Amino acid sequence: MAEKKTPRRPAPLKAATKPRKPARAKADAPAGLDLAQVRAQIDGIDQQIQALIAERARWARQVGKAKGKLAAAVDYYRPEREAQVLRRVVDRNHGPLADEVLVRLFREVMSACLAQQEPLKIGYLGPEGTFSQQAALKHFGHSAHGLPLGSIEEVFQEVAAGHADFGVVPVENSGQGTIQVTLDMFLTSPLRICGEVELRVHQHLLSRSGRIEDIERIYAHPQAFAQAAGWLRTHLPRAEKIPVSSNAEGARRARHADDAAAIAGESAGLAYGLKRVAGPIEDRSDNTTRFLVIGRQPFPPSGNDRTSLLVSIRDRPGALYGVLEPLARRGISMSRIESRPEHGGKWQYAFFIDVAGHCDEAPLKDALDEIAAQGDALRVLGSYPVAIA
Q1: Helix, coil or strand: residue 345
Q2: For residue 315, which phi and psi values (nearest 5 degrees)?
Q3: How far apart are CA 286 and CA 115, in angstroms?
Q4: In what residue span(s) does the ACT domain sit (predicted)?
C-alpha cells in the first residue's frame, strides 16, 4: 500500500514587513542568456509554481478537515480571511505586475482551493454576459458556480431560500447614482451584506452587422442609456431606445436583426456573437459600478471594513442629527447617506448609511449602541471588507 503523504509543516510566520525591492543586478542577471535558456528558466519556475499551488490546495483541504463536518460549501467560506490574504498580496507587490493582476491570480487560486469542498453557488443578475456576472467572477473566481437570474428581486429570493449561497447585485454607479430596487429590497429582506465589488464599466455599442448606418433601434438597461446619453445624442439621435432588464438581455435580442444594436460590455458581445460598432461610449472616463455581495449571515472583522446601516427615524426635530452626531463625535467617516420611502406608511422614510469600521469593534460599536438607545429603529445590514483592487 502506498504511503499516505501529509503536507509539510509550514514555517512559523514572521512579523509582517514590506519586502525590499530586489537588487538591480539580480533583476538584470538573465540578460546574457539565449532564448532557449530563458525558456528553460521559465519552465523551471512554472514547475515550482505548480508544486506550490498543489501544496496550498492540500493545506486548504486540511483547513476543511479541521473545521469538521459542515453542512455546505458556504460554511467554509470566510470573506474576512480572503480579504486579509489579498491585502498582503498588494502589500508585498513591487511589480512588474500590477496589483489588480496579482489580486486576480490569487483570487482564482483561493477559489479553486475552496471548490475542493464544494463550489459556491452565486446568484447574479443575468443572463450570461452582464456586468453583474463580471463582478461575481471578480469576487468569487471562476471555480464558483454562477446562477444567472432574471431580476435583482430574484437574486434576493434565491439567496434567502438557500438555493444560492450568495448573490451579487448592483447598488450604485459613479455617474448615475443609486440602483433603487436594490435598496428597496433591504427594507423587507432579512439578508446581510457580506462584501462589495467595484467594477470599472466600459459600455460598447454592439450589433450583428457591425455597421452604425444599419442601426434603427438600440436595446439596453436604463442605466446604460444614461451612462452613454451624450454619445447617443451625437451619433445616433434618431435611433429608438428600448429599455430591457439587463445589457446582456439587450445583446441577446440584438443578435436577431441587422438593424438592432445593444449597449453592453465586451463579454456580452462575445457571448451572443455581436460585433463592436463603437466603444467605449460611456460619457465619463471613470464610469464604475459598485456591487454588493449578499448572504444569510454576518462575518467577523477583516481589519479594514465598511458597515451599511438602515435607520428608520421617528418624526421629531433634530432626528437625523441625533443619528449622525454620535458618529461624527467619534471621528467615524461616513461615505454615503440616502433616504428611501418606507413601506410602512405614507411620507415615512428610512436612511441608508455607509460608515467606516466593523459593527463589532469600537468606536463604531459604541456609536451604534448610543444611536439605538435613542429609540429609532436601527438595523445593521452588514459589516464587510472594503473592496480590494
Answers
A1: coil
A2: -70, 105
A3: 34
A4: 308-385
Question: From the CA atom positions of the chain, what is the Rg in Å?
Answer: 24
Considering only the top CATH level, what class is 204-278? alpha beta
Residue 210 region by backbone torsions, left for phi larger than 0, else alpha for psi between -120 and 50, else beta: left
Q: What is the 3-state secondary structure (H, E, C) of 16-44?
A: CCCCCCCCHHHHHHHHHCCHHHHHHHHHH
Whole-number Å distance between alpha carbons of 261 and 255: 8
Bridge partners (DSSP) of residue 308 are 354, 382
What is the reported pLDDT for 19? 43
Q: Confirm if 187 and 379 have CB atoms less than 8 A apart.
A: no
C-alpha cell belonging to residue 37: 535558456
- Residue type at position 170: P
- Taking the chain (389 residues) in runs of 10, the rounded mean pLDDT of each run is 44 40 46 84 95 92 69 80 95 94 95 89 92 95 95 96 96 89 93 96 94 96 93 96 93 94 93 94 92 96 96 79 92 93 74 96 95 86 93
Q: What's the fold here for domain 298-385?
A: Alpha-Beta Plaits (3.30.70)
3-class secondary structure, 105: helix
Task: Check residue 332 and report its DSSP letter.
Answer: -
Whole-angstrom distance, CA of residue 152 vs CA of residue 127: 12
Phi, psi at 355, each rounded to 5°: -135, 160
Domain range list for the chain = 49-114, 121-201+288-293, 204-278, 298-385
CATH 1.20.59.10 assigned to 49-114: yes
